[in-house]
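Recap from last week: sequence in, structure out.
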Amino acid sequence: MVIEGIEPCIDGGRFPAKRSVGERLEVSADIFADGHDVLAAVLRYRHVADAEWRDVPMVAGPNDRWAAAFTVERLGRYEYALRAWVDAFASWRAALLKKVAAEQEVGNELLTGAGLVRAAATRATGKDADWLRAQADALAEPGAKRVAAALAPALAEAMARHADRQLATDSERALSVVVEPERAASGAWYEMFPRSASPVAGRHGTFADVEARLPYVADMGFEVLYLPPIHPIGRTHRKGPNNTPGAQRGDPGSPWAIGSSEGGHTAVHPELGAVDDLRRLVAAARRHRLDVALDLAFQCSPDHPYVAEHPQWFAWRPDGTVQYAENPPKKYQDIYPLNFEGPDPRGLWSELERVVLFWIDCGIRIFRVDNPHTKPFPFWEWLIDAVHRRHPEVIFLAEAFTRPKVMRYLAKCGFSQSYTYFTWRNSKSELIEYFTELTQSEAREYLRPNLFANTPDILHAFLQRGGRPAFAIRFVLAATLGASYGIYGPAFELCEQRALPGSEEYVDSEKYQVRHWDLERPDSLRPLITAVNAARRANPALREQRTLRFVPTDNDQLLAYTKHSADGANLIMVVVNLDPHLTQSGWVDVPVHDYFIGGEQPYELHDLLTDARYVWRGGRNFVRLDPNRQPAHLFRVQV
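Predicted structure tokens:
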């Protein structure tokens, strides 16, 4: 027997595939043997905490491709493997059918079959064993009914249950799939700076202020509230507004310059509150059906306690100073990177694990990890595995705007989700090419994209120049192309588009100063955001990633695509005008036959953004979208 080409099989089984609780893992492989015997195969699986394997029969398809699936029901790691064998009874039965059809003598064949059935009876127990022995006797005794008994479906089913697997071939190694919570597979994220949460302009926000804003975030339909670093901020080389060197008195500095005399990575900035205040915030968020995600930034300010207590964890320059972070021409004198290649890796790794476990003890279950691509791959593989052994419910999001292979390898190392290049994919061709790669290549088995439409670091030129329609367009794309997406607010819903000249950096960035936002502005995108998130909650197709398919249009400014739920019962079609300035129209070619719609059969489309209903016929239909009024259709298709 030959078993090869198993999918999913990440790097020969070196890394696991990923699923969330309740999802199915579909497994396929090429299975064949010499000759013309009938083959049988099973997909075997078990949770690593279980001793017993479960078997699922595999089904043969075209060109010797076999497939089966199982549903993952528990957090943690599952193993799966394949087993195949020559099915002697099925082969005998197939040959008997041919001889009976040719009206040939089959006496010897029936005696051979009786022997096969009798052998199966010895492998069976209870009623099955007794019944198989009786069938073996029936096949061995002369009589007109022997052939009918031999070909009876009930006998074939019983023989399959007790097949002879002594000469079975197993796949070379057990493969694995890591199962995480549903939030690892889909979710709507909202990022905000706690220090800008105060309702009073000019006052530093607190965790209590964030708690007061929870209804605002929850009512828009978000599921994850992500907070940038909440730790004490260093004073040495503190940055001023717009990243200017030399902060003035009262300038708060960058939250990513972590650590001061008040503490380091397990401390809270005093102006925000205390650790117990964070615990109260986490509990309050859960009452609003929100998970709180914290930023995990493994770097230090010059004032961090680690600098004095563990100098071996930093890179020292020949002049006796610590090497600060640089990305020429940018200099970050207020941040010291940790030196993972120093003399004490074991001590450093252990301390960083302690940091993560500390915040888990405070109720945090989601971490957005800052710049993971600047730390060693083995460290992340070790840390995430160590955390998951104790807390399989914890989710890690990689903020890694780096080279494609590096992003993919971080996902293989264990990150639950990853930032993507979505921000820089704006044309129709760019979006189709990129999302086809994310959803149709092997990457879909282990890399879960999280589509942030903006971040505190990135205000793309499309948003800078396109006005409010550009924000609406990018929001609809992020929230419907992806199962997981995020926005940095309130900058996003208030369409903050002011950037430093020639850059993607915000003017008066919250990274360096406290901002006050008027959340009740009439031009806020809050109604659109609320409507789209309501559609995501009500339609499981929008929480799927793997079923995304693009639909042809005759206008390069119109992007159309469909998604359907895993059971096929929920079908969504989205049409977006990619032009923030002009009305665009054109024809959409719906693949009606793919969705069991007859050629000219009418079908209804319910626009979940406007509540309008349309009746279309056939595949080719016309759309017209004004970006200032309605940049997109979000259709639920009634088949």
